[in-house]
Design a protein that fits this description.
By secondary structure, the protein is of the alpha/beta class. The chain contains eleven helices and ten strands.
Length: 315
């Protein structure tokens, strides 16, 4: 394919992605294009069904690791509830599924169910070495089983890493091939694999992110968006609108362009929070907002919850 043809194909896909967010109508599309667009919406809607429902709303969560380490699990979940949170995300999987189930039960009893798990790094699924890929697949299998045990509906996955030995195209092709090996288990367990945008030199634009997700054509592979991770080179509201209903989970962080660093607190950086809130409303996102920041005591965690309340109120 020559450069001009490749550019035309990318622009055509970009228009299709924009249409999928509801910003364009189907006027002027061929019958085949309208059919594809309708199928994509149906697949995206399957993900929303995980969190949307009667009275669905934006929910405040926090990561388990943000809670004081000196407390028991029962005390941790009670504190999370007291501080105003409505859910918890585990920072990594538990191999002991009986212990995982017990932790999930405790969280639900406290009114802060575990909604997702951040997969531990067993090995990038884009790695050229089979033994490292095997570690990565095994890690994800453990995470998916743990999610089922604790009652979570999604596992966060960083799908690939581009580096000196792994090119962009290789990372794309190899990671998709290996993620597909995990999809039968995800379907069996009814747990979504949610790929996230991180500083891995991969999926650097919202159009690429949407395309990467769409190529799986599978309701058990969706998007996890961190609204702070693209501020160095993009805009959170643009990513949210473009990736749209492919999104099942959202991380909250703030970033300061001038210092090129994340801020310790939400609402103190260059994320355009009012526009983020508008974008969330436009794409119909209902579900958890989970800060990925440092932890602390009751006063600190209450402040975090109140900052999320301010974001939610921005509409």
């Amino acid at each position: 394919m020559n450069q001009s043809a490749g550019r035309r194909e990318f622009l055509k896909y970009a228009a299709a992605v924009t249409a999928g967010t509801g910003l364009l109508t189907t006027t002027g599309l061929s019958q085949e294009e309208r059919k594809k667009k309708g199928g994509r919406k149906k697949r995206q809607g399957a993900a929303q069904a995980q969190t949307a429902g009667p009275g669905a709303k934006l929910l405040k969560a926090l990561q388990f690791g943000m809670l004081p380490k000196s407390l028991t699990d029962t005390e941790k979940f009670a504190l999370a509830k007291k501080c105003g949170f409505e859910g918890v995300e585990l920072n990594g999987p538990m191999a002991d599924l009986a212990a995982a189930k017990e932790r999930g039960d405790l969280a639900r009893q406290a009114g802060v169910p575990i909604h997702s798990i951040v997969n531990g790094w067993g090995g990038p699924l884009s790695d050229p070495r089979p033994e490292n890929v095997e570690k990565g697949i095994a890690s994800m299998e453990t995470s998916l089983k743990c999610a089922k045990a604790v009652g979570a509906d999604a596992v966060l996955l960083v799908p690939a890493v581009v580096n000196e030995e792994v090119g962009y195209g290789e990372a794309w092709e190899r990671s998709q091939k290996n993620v597909r090996k995990l999809l039968p288990l995800a379907k069996e367990l009814q747990v979504i694999i949610a790929v996230e945008n991180v500083w891995n030199k991969f999926l650097l634009s919202p159009l690429e992110f949407a395309k990467y997700v769409d190529e799986f054509d599978d309701p058990w592979l969706k998007a996890y968006i961190d609204v702070g991770n693209m501020i160095q080179f993009g805009y959170a509201q643009d990513w949210l609108r473009t990736v749209g209903q492919r999104i099942v989970k959202i991380h909250l962080k703030d970033f300061k362009r001038k210092t090129n660093s994340f801020t310790p607190n939400l609402l103190e950086g260059d994320v355009n929070w009012p526009q983020v809130r508008v974008a969330l409303e436009e794409i119909g996102y209902h579900g958890y907002l989970t800060p990925e920041i440092g932890g602390g005591d009751e006063a600190y965690l209450t402040d975090v919850a109140q900052r999320i309340d301010k974001i939610i109120a921005m509409k």
